[in-house]
UniProtKB/TrEMBL annotation:
Necessary cofactors: Zn(2+); Mn(2+); Fe(2+)
Native species: Microbacterium invictum
Subcellular location, record wording: Cytoplasm
Binding site for Zn(2+): 83, 86, 123, 126
Pfam families, alphabetized: FUR
GO molecular function: DNA-binding transcription factor activity; transcription cis-regulatory region binding; zinc ion binding
Keywords: Cytoplasm, DNA-binding, Iron, Metal-binding, Repressor, Transcription, Transcription regulation, Zinc
SUPFAM superfamilies: Winged helix' DNA-binding domain
Quaternary structure and partners: Homodimer.
Record note on cofactor: Binds 1 zinc ion per subunit. Binds 1 Mn(2+) or Fe(2+) ion per subunit.
GO cellular component, one term: cytosol
Protein name in UniProt: Fur family ferric uptake transcriptional regulator
Metal-binding listed as a keyword: yes
Binding-site positions, Fe cation: 77, 98, 115
Amino acid sequence: MAQRNTWQRDRVRSALGDAQGFVSAQDLHASLREDNTGIGLATVYRALAALAANGEADQLQSPEGEAIYRACASEGHHHHLICRSCGTTVEIQAHDVETWAQRTAATHGFTQAEHVVDIFGLCAACTARNRVPH
């Protein structure tokens, strides 16, 4: 069943597009609350789930286990490099990972294999800020 497009979903989509990097539903809700939109947290969760299901948003799990979202800049399957400090995100293609995943699945008799690979680290700017002079 197709979901109707509501002004609330449009506003969540817009706020997600304005966010820097990946954000949690709670953080996005706080941003919407600051703008006095009247959009509730449950609505934000539903809208983000719909956007992710439609391919309009990337959804992944942070290292802490929280679902985080980002407006999708690429179509199709891709991976991310994500800075743990500032949230800078780079969408990447990882052909070696694709080959490895399919080969590993086939070795074990699996078909229609899917995978999620996201790499968390520190971007160059955060690494430079964290360096301590000797």
